[in-house]
Amino acid sequence: MLEIKDLCARVVDGDAILEGLTMTVKAGEVHAIMGPNGSGKSTLAKVIAGHPDYEVTSGSIGYEINRRTRDLLELEPHERAREGVFLAFQYPVEVPGVSNSVFLRAAFNEICRHHGIEELDPIDFAVLLKDKMAMLEMDESFVNRAVNVDFSGGEKKRNEILQMAVMSPRVAFLDETDSGLDVDSMKIVASGVNKLRSENNAIVLITHYQRLLNYIKPDFVHIIAGGKIVRSGGPELAHEVEERGYDWLVK
Amino acid sequence: MPSTIDIDSKLAEEYRYGFVSDIESETIPRGLNEDIVRMISAKKDEPEWMLEYRLKAFRFWKEQPEPTWANVSYPPIDYENLYYYSAPKKNTDGPKSLNDVDAELLATFDRLGVPLGERERLAGVAVDAVFDSVSVATTHQEELEKCGVIFCSFSEAVKNHPELVKKYFGSVVPYTDNFYTALNSAVFSDGSFCFIPKGVHCPLELSTYFRINAAETGQFERTLIVAEDSSYVSYLEGCTAPMRDENQLHAAVVELVAFDDAEIKYSTVQNWYAGDANGKGGIYNFVTKRGKCQGRNSKISWTQVEAGAAITWKYPSVLLLGDNSVGEFYSVALTNNMMQADTGTKMIHVGKNTSSTIISKGISCDQSHNSYRGLVRVLPGASGARNRSECDSMLVGNQCSANTFPYLEVENNTAVIEHEATTSRISAEQMFYLESRGLDKEGAVSLLVNGFCKEVFKKLPLEFSVEAVKLLEMKLEGSVG
Ligand SMILES: Nc1ncnc2c1ncn2[C@@H]1O[C@H](COP(=O)(O)OP(=O)(O)OP(=O)(O)O)[C@@H](O)[C@H]1O
Ligand SMILES: [Mg+2]
């Protein structure tokens, strides 16, 4: 469903970061991306979501919409989101004044409208939200708090997965969602993510730690270095990296 | 990384109310002198005492320098070159039934969303419709009369309730108050009068809709609201004007008086034409609004959504005389394109245990300037006075500016004053975050702006808060690239 081909991207008017990255993700799969700091993992995720700081210089991102392949690069960020592309941010952004429930309902209804489904009124949405929050064992007080404002690092990460649960994306990039989560929280979040998995969607986990992969089992593991994939393999690759680091791959 | 979103100011956003009605009107010659003042008074068939008042005000005005302290700039206004009176032809002789109202005028108000006809008019809201210099119709009057509420045009009040007008007119805002109040007191033409007798909870929202239509004409209206002991009224004003290339002057005076245990809630949704993207045209909105909490436990609250006008100069204030009286000011001021706003409030604590709340939200976009200016004054006798002020500014883009000028004069050491001010900018990261959740740019900005303003919006009567949200969204459309 997602086919990234020879993707090259740079910071607008700046340095090149992605230098010919190719990766294919099929429905129902879980991929893990690992790689040294600064190798371009977050950049890849943000380019897929359409972040305006980056400019794609060549390559394409094929994405299946209604059984037809479109290049995501032709879509605005909000159109990508409405078509089911989701990014759980490495650094979630604070949105003062806007409560989590208002924000989530706005997002949810945008997607409904886009697909011609009836929107939910605040009461029906509250029921849906309560259910998703229970799945992630989140306290109800988060409903009325301003989005991410004064949330702890771990709470912000969990809030990202709540957004994912509400939006039911078809392809979700989770950028270091495990960093900052304590052991118990990680189990809860991982089990939440597992519940969201289906044969119709795909998940790409960006992580530094093999531990997460014990809970969310990947089908493929890719190592990014210097803006491209230098090695792909199965779950065993993550173990190898855990033991040996990246030097042997980067050379 | 750029820290702000890119603004490409598109074509001037559509101003839905910018049309001109083709209505034959009666004007008086250009210019301002004693003869003009007499002419206006004569047109309105006023009693001698009113003419005397106007002339005193005019003489005072001539001696006054124009104020320059506000954080706004504009070329000098040539007061000699304006028209001070313009009225639709048929309607010069005071009150009339709806049947006499010109069809084109009714159509105009329909188009503005304020239908006046028996059948279409808004339920639950009584409307006084002011077109240029005169009130053309007031709805629901009979219904209000039944409970003793007087709601009529100002001219009508001068004729039918002279004792009330004499007693309260100018009692809160004397003509000597400032340059524009003196000007208004000399040439005011119409406006609304509301009187809520003792113990009456006004069963309808009262509202006045101000429409400027004629070119090169100033609008100078007066509003006077008196709430006797233990009464309650909620009043709303709305305003629009055609899109014209010249600036037009609107200098109003609003006076409120609340007696023991009475409450007046005054809301404004101001959407005067603001000029085009290059700052050409638009209304100069130079307005003096003041309420007097005369009685114990009385309460006056001002809620305003200021989204139009080329220049806004306006400080709705409350004079807290009665012990335990309460003053409130809730404001959203949005400026875009080249608009300039210098607005805020004054809370003057005189009585004991008086309290005031100020919540001001300024939003500036494009190249606009938005200033909050507020005074909290506690007099020596006002023991136990409390004030809480919160003044927040939001910047959209990086060519606009926002300023806060809070003034504090506290002469009683038992007073408790809290002041908070914040300035924030809508960041590119916030925009991207919201977009990545399926909101388009406009949806994202309106979510942020509505979140920013919600404390004020929830103070508006429900149906108008929906209007206000829509108005801000429409205004923001052109400003978010
Ligand atoms: N907007 C930007 N402006 C300038 N440089 C950038 C920008 N975004 C990314 N970079 C640079 O590009 C490189 C890749 O960054 P990226 O965030 O993709 O790394 P990462 O693989 O996610 O690292 P980490 O594991 O530390 O999260 C880094 O050197 C980073 O400094
Ligand atoms: Mg990263």
Describe this structure in words.
The complex is a heterodimer of chains A (251) and B (481). By secondary structure, chain A is of the alpha/beta class. In chain A, 37% of the residues lie in helices and 29% in strands. Chain A has helices at 41-49, 77-82, 100-114, 122-135, 153-167, 183-196, 210-215, 236-244, 247-250, and strands spanning 2-11, 16-25, 30-34, 54-65, 68-71, 85-88, 95-99, 146-147, 171-175, 202-206, 220-225, 228-233. The two termini of chain A are 32 Å apart. With 481 residues, chain B is of the alpha/beta class. Helix content of chain B is 22%, strand content 35%. Chain B contains 10 helices and 23 strands. The radius of gyration of chain B is 22 Å and the shape is globular. The two termini of chain B are 17 Å apart. Classes of the chains: A alpha/beta (251), B alpha/beta (481). The structure holds adenosine-5'-triphosphate and magnesium ion. Adenosine-5'-triphosphate (ATP) is lined by residues 11, 14, 17, 35, 37-43, 53, 90 of chain A. Magnesium ion binds next to α1 of chain A.
Total number of domains of chain B: 1
Largest interface: A-B, 32 and 25 residues
Q: Report the sheet-strand fraction of chain B.
A: 35-45%
Oligomer category: heterodimer
Per DSSP, the total helix count of chain B is: 10
The shape of chain A, in one word, is globular
Radius of gyration of chain B: 22 Å
Report the helical percentage of chain B.
10-25%
Uncertain stretches of 5 or more adjacent residues of chain B: 1-13
Radius of gyration of chain A: 18 Å
Please identify the structural class of chain B as seen in this structure.
Answer: alpha/beta
> Could you say which small molecules are bound to this protein?
adenosine-5'-triphosphate, magnesium ion
Shape of chain B: globular
Name the CATH architecture of chain A. Answer: 3-Layer(aba) Sandwich
Flag low-confidence runs of chain A: none
